[in-house]
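Reagents: none. Just compute today. tRNA(Ile)-lysidine synthase.
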Amino acid sequence: MFPKFKQHITNAMPFLKGQRLLLACSGGVDSVVLTHLCVAEGMDVALAHCNFNLRGEESDGDETFVRELASKLKLEVFVKRFDTEQYAEKKRLSVQMAARELRYQWFDELLRNKGFDYVLTAHHADDSLETFLINLSRGTGIEGLSGIPEVNKKVVRPLLPFSRGEILGYAQSENHHWREDSSNVSTKYLRNKIRHNIVPNLKELHPTFLQNFLHTQHHLQQTNGMVNQHLHELKSELFLEGEDVTHIPIAELQKLYPLESYLYGLFKDYGFTEWNDVKNLLTAMSGKQVFSKTHQLLKDRDHLILSEIKNRVNETYTVYLNVDTSELPVSLKLEEIETVEKQGKNVVFLDKEKLNFPLALRKWEKGDYFYPFGMQGKKKLSKFFKDEKMNLVSKEKQWLLCSGDDIVWVVGKRADERFRVEDSTEGIIKITLVQ
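Predicted 3D structure written out:
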């Protein structure tokens, strides 16, 4: 197995050579074999072991074994103990998903803080087959059938071309020792049911079933790669990037066929996996919106507007006269002048005596109103925004400059008539929105 592993690293993963590598080692046969293979190949590895505290003394025994393996091979070792069940309950996750989250969060932390370049895991061909069957049983697309990727950002899986049988045979022939996880024999977990009850029967169908499956999955991965390349090119044409939002023309989306597949492919990276929600938005009234965990998608006349969901800033910023305003979320320049110049959207002139300093900078709230400059009477901000044809995203970004409870300036839009400069005005404040 070692010559085959050595050749695989040389041909498929030459980028690992000379890099500092963190190897996830549970103490099981797969990760123990990967450890010995990497050491034999002269790769710069350190071990990382997660003790999830799920199997009592057995979990502690795994930790001790990995520490002793690292000592024997003169490798640096990192160990982290987790209260996995408490984390699962807090996050409302299954124990398996909680363990996965905790594991990869810790690996990311080690990569950042300890100077490692990649994380190696010991997933192999049988793992990829099991994942394929799990995804197939739950319903999935081509991405879910493409299996475990060999390289996923900083996570690398050098054993994917090898079967569980090859790994076990190598460990036995080299007289390597490892730990057996008692939970692996339990069929209460879906993966174990597939591993023990389904995969052996599939392998009986043909002597080279697993190898044939890997070839098929390789073709699926290549097809998925072509699809992703096409979607990337389509996004560059249709997704018109703005400062904080992306505009997508609805008419161009409606030309795509099959529409459902395109909508899923174009918007899944933003968390919109229910393509029907996006499809219904194409014909909805303006102002209709749908949300994922990370993004919002708004129908605005002829476009969809995509933006990241950010926590709305509720705090109020204090604005003083003749004090640096560089820490404000918008850059304002306040100065006392003697004569009024031309007023515009980005420059306002106010009667100093009518202002109560310090002023306040805040976002709009329901029920807000002001007296638009040049008009008689008050207007609700919601009506003003509608007249200005501002979409929901623009409204959420809008700042107000206030004196006490009164709006002085809808920043960059319109000043308030009550604070205008008159013939009797003795002090004039000029405020400029610096862009």
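The first strand starts at residue 20 and ends at 24.
Action item: order primers for follow-up constructs.
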